[in-house]
Design goal:
This protein is α+β, with helices and mostly antiparallel strands. Helices cover about 50% and strands about 10% of the residues. The protein has a six-stranded mixed beta sheet with strand order 1-2-3-9-6-4. Strands 5-13-10 form a three-stranded antiparallel beta sheet. It has a two-stranded antiparallel ribbon with strand order 7-8. The longest helix has about 30 residues.
Length: about 425
């Protein structure tokens, strides 16, 4: 069968990457060139960058033919931040690390975090109660960022969290306090590896009974399956990968809920039907009571996928969805563009959680990839889902959110897609 040849676009601008200029360019080019096109620099002979938003071709890149790809360009900044952790590592080393880490993400292991996630949200509910009494709006972007940081650090460090955060002085606070993810941030973040090395060494000497990520990694180090340095890279990866993604998704979710009273009413009815003691233990309701909340989370991640740009590099000549890519070609797939494609989604920019009540057909399965797909799929998906569900249910049972500004939040695309300014919400007690 002859290969399909996509259009070539000649662009004089710099390479694509995790920045807002790229998001805007991809948006405009998608409308003009369709779901698959090549980008060529004026001085280049070949089209070295491909942009792919056709679900079958996406499936080939991420899943069916994923062994023909490595992660692509744009990870340099992430590497400075995270060393050689799961997010950036490759080949046999990545496979070994993923195999060693996977047991820590099994549902039985994650269940140990559910009560902590619930208790942290309850603490936030007390603050929201005081703000509601004082008629004060809550700045949700920084507040949720702090909440999720505590959840991530407690799931990583378990009982050592108290040794890490003394008198409310959290050394990882720079993740919430500083929006930039530039070189200067990376340097300061990297200094924290010394602290993590110390906590890891202590845990290797005195294993704790708790089931936290540091404990899993310390066992791997003690068994000789992983070096200390490798374990520290994984700790830093989990903290960064698990923090901003979930926090951004929840901030967007609050805006969407506060501005859609019908969806909100259904969400509160579902939240009210749940036994909180059970939520605390199971991270879920019974018999699908919380399905509507899960649809709200799914729809939020469709409109605002924090992992908005995936990049890969072809290792060999490879056929993806009938297109032939040469070895060395950079491939970009943006869940943000894919999730808003009018050729795939009805009313793509609308907030309609009900669309997730209908199961996907096989072809559209790869049109929705907030956690990516295939072997490099997000390892923290289940943990993130429980954090988001528990947080929303616990607060919706107690409060009704009202937007201070009903216009859609402006977004900023960096390594993650996040709100570019605060989302203030006025909570009223129910
Ligand atoms: C709403 C929340 C989250 C979203 C939307 C999200 C999204 C993603 C995406 C799209 C990828 C694939 C990146 C790529 O292929 O280039 C990924 C990978 C990853 N995520 Fe998440 N993530 C979330 C939460 C978490 C959490 C809570 C953790 C851990 C505590 C986590 C840990 C990781 C790791 C370690 C990888 C690399 C996996 C590998 O390559 O083996 N993520 N995530």
């Amino acid at each position: 069968m002859a290969a399909t040849v996509p259009p070539v676009l000649v662009s004089s601008e710099s390479s694509l990457g995790p920045n807002d200029a790229t998001r805007r360019r991809l948006d405009a080019w998608h409308a003009e060139y369709g779901p698959v096109y090549r980008v060529q620099r004026p001085d280049g002979n070949t089209a070295a960058e491909w942009v792919i938003h056709e679900p079958e071709a996406v499936r080939d890149v991420l899943a069916r033919r994923s062994r023909h790809f490595t992660k692509g360009q744009g990870l340099d900044r992430v590497k400075i931040l995270l060393g050689n952790g799961l997010m950036v590592s490759e080949g046999d080393f990545w496979q070994r690390q993923r195999r060693l880490m996977q047991p820590a993400f099994r549902p039985q292991s994650l269940a140990d975090f559910y009560s902590m996630i619930f208790d942290e949200t309850r603490k936030m509910a007390e603050e929201l109660g005081a703000a509601a009494d004082a008629n004060q709006p809550v700045a949700m972007v920084p507040r949720i960022s702090e909440l999720i940081l505590v959840m991530v650090l407690k799931s990583v460090f378990g009982p050592d969290y108290d040794a890490l955060v003394i008198h409310d002085d959290n050394p990882f606070r720079l993740l919430t306090a500083e929006p930039a993810r530039d070189l200067s941030f990376a340097r300061r973040f990297h200094i924290l590896t010394r602290l993590v090395h110390r906590l890891l060494a202590k845990r290797c000497e005195q294993p704790a009974a708790s089931n936290d990520f540091l404990g899993h990694l310390a066992s791997a180090v003690s068994d000789g399956a992983m070096s200390e340095r490798e374990a520290v890279d994984e700790v830093m990866t989990l903290i960064v990968a698990g923090h901003e993604t979930t926090a951004s998704a929840l901030a967007f979710a609050w805006h969407l809920l506060a501005t859609h009273p019908d969806v909100l009413a259904k969400a509160q009815a579902a939240a009210d039907s749940v036994d909180e003691d059970q939520l605390r233990v199971l991270g879920d309701g019974e018999r699908g009571q919380l399905e509507w909340l899960d649809h709200i989370v799914a729809e939020t991640l469709r409109l605002y996928p924090p992992g908005w740009l995936l990049s890969r590099r072809a290792l060999t000549t490879v056929d993806v969805g009938g297109y032939y890519l040469d070895a060395g070609v950079q491939v970009y797939i943006s869940p943000y563009i894919l999730h808003r494609d009018p050729a795939i989604w009805v009313h793509p920019t609308g907030f309609d959680p009900g669309r997730f009540e209908r199961p996907f057909d096989r072809a559209s399965r790869f049109a929705y990839i907030p956690f990516a797909a295939g072997m490099r799929r997000c390892i923290g998906e289940q943990l993130a889902r429980v954090e988001m569900r528990t947080h929303l249910v616990t607060l919706l049972r107690r409060f009704t959110p009202h937007p201070m500004d009903a216009t859609p939040p402006s977004v900023e695309a960096g390594i993650n897609l996040r709100p570019s300014s605060d989302i203030p919400i006025q909570f009223c007690k129910r």
